[in-house]
Amino acid sequence: MIRSTLAVAVVSLFSVTGCDRSAEQELENAQEAQSAANEERAEAEREAAEKINAAQREAMEAANEAQRETAEAQKDVHQAVGEGHNAVMEAQKEANKEGAEAHREAADEIADARRDVVAAKREANRDTAEAQGEANEALREARTKIEEERNELREWSQKQVAEIDRMIADARVKTERADPTDKAAFEQAMRQIEAKRSAIRNDIASIEKQSAAGLSKFENRVHNQVDDLRNRVEKLDDKL
Questions:
Q1: CB 70 within 8 A of CB 98
Q2: Is the pLDDT assigned to residue 111 strictly greater than 70?
Q3: How far is Cα 69 from Cα 216, in angstroms, rounded to an integer?
Q4: Which of 15, 20, 85, 223 lies at 20 to 30 Å from 43 by C-alpha?
Q5: What is the pLDDT of residues 61-90, one digit of tens each?
Q6: How far is CA 170 from CA 122, 139, 163, 207, 240, in A?
């Protein structure tokens, strides 16, 4: 039962195909696998507790039955007292035999019940450990995917900023031939561009702080900032 439930959770984790699978989805599914493992552990513990209670009830019933049989045998002994000494001795012997047999049977049932309980606990612990191990592996894979996405976004952003730096350097070369008015307008526009470029660099430096849930929105924001900055530099360059 634990294996089947966990299998559903793990299949759900990898249901998103190819590279389109997002880290956020993988982490969410990994957390679902962890939740499933916890639920299965609780179910296994409940089943083990039920088996223990059932075994204890059976053992108690066996002991009570042994006591009843012994009492009945003793009753037969007392009834035989009036029939003579030999009859008393025979009845006592039979009573002892029946009592011993009843106690042996009760002891055997108790031993069987205890073995069943130990086996149930061992199986529950094994299944729980397997479920926990698979849930942990799913979480590790999700976290690895998130880290890969962070690294890819960082690398892409740094390349884009480096390309914009090159565009700015080329535009500055053009200003050497521009008249003072155009050069002043260029420097004024560059102050805004450099402020936005600094904002992008700060965002790139904060990638590690982004959660899996917020990484997608963060990526969109950086893309928009880079596109806006590139457009500003291109327009400024066209005016020179």
A1: yes
A2: yes
A3: 75
A4: 15
A5: 766 776 776 677 667 656 655 555 566 677
A6: 72, 47, 11, 29, 11
Please tell me the distance from the alpha carbon of residue 149 to that of residue 157, in angstroms, as a whole number. 12
CB of 146 closer than 8 Å to CB of 212: yes
Residue at 142: amino acid letter? A
CA–CA dist 115, 239 (Å, integer):
89
Residue 22 pLDDT > 90, yes or no? no
- Integer angstrom CA distances of residue 79 from 74, 86, 142, 176: 9, 13, 79, 130
- How many CA atoms lie within 13 Å of 134's alpha carbon, on the beta-carbon side? 24
The residues near 200 (Cβ < 8 Å, ≥ 6 apart) are 157, 161, 222, 225, 226, 229
Which residue has tokens 């050497």? 176
d(CA 149, CA 207) in angstroms, rounded, equals: 10
Q: Which two tokens stand for residue 26?
A: 């993988």
Tell me if 167 sits within 8 A of 237, measured CB to CB. Answer: yes
Cα–Cα distance, 63 to 74 (Å, whole number): 16
Residue 188 to residues 69, 182, 232: CA-CA distances in angstroms?
Answer: 107, 10, 13
